[in-house]
Amino acid sequence: MAYRYLFGPVCSRRLGVSLGIDLVPLKTCTFNCIYCECGRTTRLIGERHEYVPTGQVIAEVDEYLARAPDLDYVTFAGSGEPTLHSGIGEIISFIKDRYPRYRVAVLTNGALLGDPDVRAALMRADLVVPSLDAVSEEIFQEINRPCPGITAGEVVEGLTTFAREFTGEIWLEVFIVPGQNDTEEEILRLKSVIAAIGPDHVQVNTLDRPGAEIWVRPASSLALERIASTLGGSTEVIGEACSSQALPQKAAEVTDLLLATIRRRPCTINDLISTLGLRPAEISKCLRVLEAEGRIESVRERRGIFYRAV
Length: 310
Hints:
The chain is of the alpha/beta class. The chain contains ten helices and twelve strands.
């Protein structure tokens, strides 16, 4: 079965084997981050809607989880901001009621956590992974380029309130952009705010594939370790993706899986091998066919050749 709203499972650097749920159209988001691996936001919006049919998402989730797959998480993520979808709480509740064995994670930029309805919708999740890249307003605006009206102060206040109410785990991500938010002053400001929020873990991340703006470059490993040390506590640098065992797949299934992954973010062959658990020869053959058909294109970056959807 080809799914419209599910993708993967992928082997995530943070979450292990994860089935993804994508609730909004491509690049529908509250932010237009300069580093976003999905590219520039095409629909910058702060209003919540039922962007895709809640019932259809639930039907796909039900069909997939009924097979009892071996997963570490069912994760709301994808190519936009999942909390923009007004039915996310209903979908989370369905999973927890019908398939309580599965842990639910939500990856969010945190922009809407000041909204009581959004906080209520996420209460049954097991893990929420919000981001906070800057607390200084100027730096926040430069990096995250939010929907008009969203400020750094509001994001921090929403995160703080959510952390006080939420009974699950919170892993806070800080994405480092050299020359933007890596100064000692900004890191110390972040440290103070993070202490007030009180997340269970803090994860320091940087560019791993092409970002929205071509001039954005990754921070060095040494810089990331220094920042993690300054932030202290349970801060860690996000590591490599886990490795998953190669599973036999039909050719059509491989094509669908590759396209679903590449549509959401550019990938190298090694990315696809590590995240999808497919054999290298299988992936290479499929990529050649897709590129010849004009369905994907390749671009050389510092980390290698990336494939992205056309």
